[in-house]
Amino acid sequence: MVDVPLGVGGVPPAEVEDVELYHPKSWVTHYVFSQDAKIIAVQYSVTALSIGLVALMLSWLMRVQLAFPGALSFIDADAYYQLITMHGMMMVVYVLTALFLGGFGNYLIPLMLGARDMVFPYANMLSFWFYLLAVVVLFASFAVPGGPTGAGWTLYPPQSITAGTPGLAWGIIMMLVSLMIFIIGFTMGGLNYVVTVLQGRTRGMTLMRMPLTVWGIFTASVMALLAFPALFVGAVMMLFDRLLGTSFFMPEIIEQGARLPYGGGSPILFQHLFWFFGHPEVYIVALPAFGIVSDLISVHARRNIFGYRMMVWAIVAIGALSFVVWAHHMYVSGMNPYFGFFFATTTLIIAIPTAIKVYNWVLTLWRGDIHLTVPMLFALAFIVTFVNGGLTGLFLGNVVVDVPLSDTMFVVAHFHMVMGVAPILVIFGALYHWYPKVTGRLLNVPLGQLHFWVTFLGAYLIFFPMHYLGLMGVPRRYYEMGETAIYPQSAHDLNIFITVTALLVGAAQFAFVFNLIWSLRHGREAGGNPWRACSLEWQTSATPPPHGNFGKELPIVYRWAYDYNVPGAPEDFIPQNQPPLAGEIASRAP
Amino acid sequence: MHVVLVLVLVAIGSVLFHFLSPWWWTPIASNWQYIDDTIIITFWITGVVFVAVLLFMAYCVWRFRHREGHKAAFEPENRRLETGLTVITGLGVAAMLAPGLFVWNHFITVPPDASEIEIVGQQWQWSFRLPGKDGKLGRSSIDSIADDNPLGLDKNDPDGRDDVVVQSEDLHLPIGKPIKVVLRSTDVLHNFYVPEFRAKMDILPGSSTYFWLTPTRTGTFDILCAELCGTGHPYMRGSVVVEEQLSYDVWLDSQQRRMVAQQDGTKGQKGEVEVQQ
């Protein structure tokens, strides 16, 4: 007999008193300085998506330069490096992290757990305003003398704070300050997500009954709280090096003929701090995507997620392991080469829980009742791109294989596939899935399908061939590929193909933006539970959910979130707050 | 059912692209055939997994698509299936990791008979230093760098007296001899990258790094920089010439004679200055 996580033995008593919420009295406290997690979620999401559009347009400029060097006269080498730096930092931190945790985390955690709000609503509000301030500082660096930093998103010293790199005067300072503000803001939000998951669940919502979306966001938040401090101290130390003349990261160096007054520092120290943050960061983006896509697949395949407990342990295992793999970004950094043995082993071990997740997604499809809705299409495309990007990770993680491939376009293709395209496909799927809950209306389906096909196939055509440029020996971060005996003319043609495809995929995103705005008024009315899903956010008293989320009484949870097509049940789904059906426990008890 | 079709096409198309596209690594020119072999093993294992997952997905989407009256099976767990898949994955990972670590051990163990050369990265040019007849490189310091001493050689170190400094010229290497490449930077990070050699390593200011190789094919190969080092990064180029021992000896000899002539020249100039004072 399988062990079905059911409400066997009844429901535990209420552990948390239902507390009085802060009630906004004016339009400003309702919609601007809001303490309602749902409003904060929308604020986070709209801000992050807007930055995403900017980052997209920056990538257009980069791609045009790579395909047609010198075609745009305002993109000189300085500008190019500023573009790649801002594109990378925006996407990783200000779009993906903010959207998954600040956007989806704020919206879904209280609703999925049957809570009225986050446990610290005021800190939650501050979290968004710090985030916005960080964004303002980041964008202000476009306006300062010298422009933003062009040090690459990894900001490796000494190059990031010495001559020869654009943005030396102001840009790098703005970048570091912006990151520090972001981290302060995130900490206030992150503590909220973690404490709400641990303390704010409604009666009956045990940890092992939480939807995997919450598990993913929860684990990612814990990781972010542990990983971001490393970036924070790295930023403080680099600011000291830049402004106060300390030498944390600065050895004896000569800057364009002049001996600088630095000495004794270690550039590799920064790389360790950066990647101690930077590798968990990959999973801070990936784990919420894993969780969300699990729920999308289960709902739209009308089948319980396969191997729920294994999925939870895989998330936790990946979260823990991701703190001991960081130096696989540094195999050729010049660190002690014996580290390679340890970090290659840990890195390849992390492939095992990750593979388990992939198996369980496809095994959820197996014997399902697959509805090819737009969210399901995006979920399927996620599996394709994530498997592709995950497998190329086995090349780069396997220390000696990384030697010829590191710092080439292979790496660029790999991380775009695995932490760019794959999570963004999940974001799109999730937006199509939860938009009806947020607005009460469905997004337009034909437009959604157009958006899906162009985005999925286009992104695959951009990044799959790009691996082979790297294999051929084209380094990353080149203002132009240039002429080398080993690059055939066809490599230049491939660059043009990638750029044209990238322009098209980018254009398709504007169809999505149009859909988001148009459907606000003209979308089909969704009702409370258009996907016939089990989890609590679809069982609210009204849609969009009111202040306080649920009606007078908080829901009581009797079962896990995946009771789809349960034999003998009257419908093909049983909501989490549905008390046991007659005879249910007797017939399915272990 | 275009979803099924696309999934199959992505799987097959990716494999065809892999075998048919004109973009592939350059013919190897060093002893690191092992690295290429490990990549091939990894391609096979990951390729099989990729195709298997995609085709299985395509099958599921086709076989279990929604139709009137069709119901999904309720099956929360299947311990045997999950354990089996975990074990197979573990074996696959081990099959990639074991050769990888074996080759890595080889990669970081410099053979005792390797001769040392030094490569210095500066924004945005390559410089090289070869030991003279004593086979030893002398000490260097960033504070000794001057117009007549671009690499900061320690003039008091007897090991460095006969060192050969090569700037704005090609580096030459003899074929078939193991070489330990010691890397040094005077300003920012660089990375000495010759695609044909496969091996590469970052170059750091403040400390030296190394890797080793044995050139196995004669020819002239481009040197690229593979670590972002400022706006001149893509233009930091150089060339390395791998040649037979005889022609290498001739080249080294001419470089040594040039060094001696240069040193005499600078000494002479200094002498004149002293006389004038």
UniProtKB/TrEMBL annotation, chain A:
<feature type="transmembrane region" description="Helical">
    <location>
        <begin position="128"/>
        <end position="147"/>
    </location>
</feature>
<dbReference type="GO" id="GO:0009060">
    <property type="term" value="P:aerobic respiration"/>
</dbReference>
<keyword id="KW-0479">Metal-binding</keyword>
<keyword id="KW-0679">Respiratory chain</keyword>
<feature type="transmembrane region" description="Helical">
    <location>
        <begin position="452"/>
        <end position="474"/>
    </location>
</feature>
<feature type="transmembrane region" description="Helical">
    <location>
        <begin position="338"/>
        <end position="362"/>
    </location>
</feature>
<dbReference type="InterPro" id="IPR023615">
    <property type="entry name" value="Cyt_c_Oxase_su1_BS"/>
</dbReference>
<feature type="transmembrane region" description="Helical">
    <location>
        <begin position="212"/>
        <end position="240"/>
    </location>
</feature>
<keyword id="KW-0349">Heme</keyword>
<feature type="domain" description="Cytochrome oxidase subunit I profile">
    <location>
        <begin position="27"/>
        <end position="558"/>
    </location>
</feature>
<keyword id="KW-1133">Transmembrane helix</keyword>
<feature type="transmembrane region" description="Helical">
    <location>
        <begin position="282"/>
        <end position="299"/>
    </location>
</feature>
<keyword id="KW-0408">Iron</keyword>
<dbReference type="InterPro" id="IPR023616">
    <property type="entry name" value="Cyt_c_oxase-like_su1_dom"/>
</dbReference>
<keyword id="KW-0813">Transport</keyword>
<feature type="transmembrane region" description="Helical">
    <location>
        <begin position="311"/>
        <end position="332"/>
    </location>
</feature>
<feature type="transmembrane region" description="Helical">
    <location>
        <begin position="494"/>
        <end position="518"/>
    </location>
</feature>
<dbReference type="GO" id="GO:0004129">
    <property type="term" value="F:cytochrome-c oxidase activity"/>
</dbReference>
<comment type="similarity">
    <text>Belongs to the heme-copper respiratory oxidase family.</text>
</comment>
<protein>
    <submittedName>
        <fullName>Cytochrome c oxidase subunit 1</fullName>
    </submittedName>
</protein>
<dbReference type="Pfam" id="PF00115">
    <property type="entry name" value="COX1"/>
</dbReference>
<keyword id="KW-0812">Transmembrane</keyword>
UniProtKB/TrEMBL annotation, chain B:
<keyword id="KW-0813">Transport</keyword>
<keyword id="KW-0186">Copper</keyword>
<dbReference type="InterPro" id="IPR002429">
    <property type="entry name" value="CcO_II-like_C"/>
</dbReference>
<dbReference type="InterPro" id="IPR036257">
    <property type="entry name" value="Cyt_c_oxidase_su2_TM_sf"/>
</dbReference>
<feature type="domain" description="Cytochrome oxidase subunit II copper A binding">
    <location>
        <begin position="112"/>
        <end position="254"/>
    </location>
</feature>
<dbReference type="GO" id="GO:0005507">
    <property type="term" value="F:copper ion binding"/>
</dbReference>
<protein>
    <recommendedName>
        <fullName>cytochrome-c oxidase</fullName>
        <ecNumber>7.1.1.9</ecNumber>
    </recommendedName>
</protein>
<dbReference type="InterPro" id="IPR045187">
    <property type="entry name" value="CcO_II"/>
</dbReference>
<keyword id="KW-1278">Translocase</keyword>
<dbReference type="InterPro" id="IPR001505">
    <property type="entry name" value="Copper_CuA"/>
</dbReference>
<keyword id="KW-0249">Electron transport</keyword>
<dbReference type="GO" id="GO:0004129">
    <property type="term" value="F:cytochrome-c oxidase activity"/>
</dbReference>
<feature type="transmembrane region" description="Helical">
    <location>
        <begin position="83"/>
        <end position="104"/>
    </location>
</feature>
<keyword id="KW-1133">Transmembrane helix</keyword>
<comment type="similarity">
    <text>Belongs to the cytochrome c oxidase subunit 2 family.</text>
</comment>
<dbReference type="InterPro" id="IPR008972">
    <property type="entry name" value="Cupredoxin"/>
</dbReference>
<feature type="transmembrane region" description="Helical">
    <location>
        <begin position="41"/>
        <end position="62"/>
    </location>
</feature>
<dbReference type="GO" id="GO:0016020">
    <property type="term" value="C:membrane"/>
</dbReference>
<dbReference type="GO" id="GO:0042773">
    <property type="term" value="P:ATP synthesis coupled electron transport"/>
</dbReference>
<keyword id="KW-0479">Metal-binding</keyword>
<keyword id="KW-0472">Membrane</keyword>
<dbReference type="Pfam" id="PF00116">
    <property type="entry name" value="COX2"/>
</dbReference>
